[in-house]
Amino acid sequence: MTFKDGNPSRVERLLRIVPAGLTLGIFTAIAVLSLIAPRFIASVMLLYVLYWFLKSILMSAHLIAGYRSYRRAIAMNWMNKLEHDPAVQGNWRDIWHLLIIPNAIEDASIVRATIEAIAATPYPKDRIIVVLANEARFPEIAKTNQHELSKQFSKVFAHFWSTLHPDGVVGEIRGKGANLSYAARTILPKITALGIKPEDILVTTLDSDNRVHPQFLPAVTHAYLTTPGNRTEKSFQPLPMFFNNIWSVPYVIRSIAVGSSFWHMIEATRPYRLRNFSAHTQSLALLLQTDFWSTNTIVEDGHQYWRSLFATQGRHTVTPVFVPIYQDAVLSPKGQLMTYREQYMQKLRWAWGASDIPYTLTRLWAGRKELPIGVWMQASRLIEGHFSWAATSLLLALFGWLPILLNPDFQGTVFSYYFTIFYQRMLLFAGVGMVVTLVISRLLLPPRPRHRLTSNDFIEWILTPFLLPITNIIFASMPAIDAQLRIARGKELGFRITEKAVERAALPITTDTKSKLTA
Fold it and tell me: Structure pTM?
């Protein structure tokens, strides 16, 4: 299947109601059945809370497994593995890395930290190309960054190039995908002139605030050269960790950032569910197959998974790489209130991935005779994932109690009495998984800087079980429902750059990866 960005079909526009229709439909059904069939809906909710109790145990086990894989990965000498692992197919020295850094408003100090992290890798610099992809609508920032950074890094890597994405291109939306695609197409003739084969160049997208772990490039090279099957048709996903400024953000934002990092660690242990997120790596050969990234969506990362899947007739998979790429947690320079607003808007943008549902369903139907059953399974996971994102917190915290709240006749029954006891205890037991996350967060996070040491650590541990349900509703369910309703109405969100204060913590980005994380 070939890919050209364009307007969605009539059927695809109609299917935009699926995410919101499913979420609101379930909410409505529970409310109505609580009035007319309270015993039935109470039984359903008991099964649902039991399901989430068992799932919380399973996710805790996956988190522990993911943490252990992470520790092994950052302690590994991946350059030595490339040299001596018999599973490596071909000569690793033939593999080049192209890292594209799209930037709009970040100044040179932010982007410099990103490029310095790349320079800290033990992978040979003469096999690394860095591209700074600027936006023409911010000419002063683009000009200053290009001048300062090219002067500093032009001789560090094999090549350091800059591009300037023009504004107002017909058929594009202002966003990361359009900038990335323009940068890749612009430098493609230079790549061709160097004589590098598309299958020998790995392309990684990095936000301007990303800092790669020094082991990332050799680790992803090893994954590429040892992966079974056609490696050019695969993506490689590192661990996103929102730790750049983790001790500078408010506690609620920190818990959200840690939770997001943990979720991606859990997903990495289940590669059959894994999809591209933020920074990811693909071969240039696959990018040529997909015509690079989409230029008319604000979720080009997750959307690229589906483009790759359909371009390869369902053969595309994502391989986890348990080496982190550090990113910023949300911290507005305008104070805490704006920080919370920015966090909501970031989650809203992430939840816009629900727009992939109509896109995926239409292409699944069009290719139903050729695509394997696994693609249908992935589509079902996409739908279930966005439904759970929007509904789970509200279902467990509120809707589970509707049979009692809305039906006075049900309140005095024996069933209602035992329902209340069992439901409360299942919710309490499901919180046991929080203990695992709290322990691993203390092992994983860089130590709190001395100038930020307070007595709040213990208080935060105590407050977490009580605040988590509230923050999940405000910063998970609500932005997800908001996104689904906007998609259903045919509204476009537009790419919105999250406001972030310029703060950087010292992170474990030295080559001494066997030592414990130090600040």
Answer: 0.91
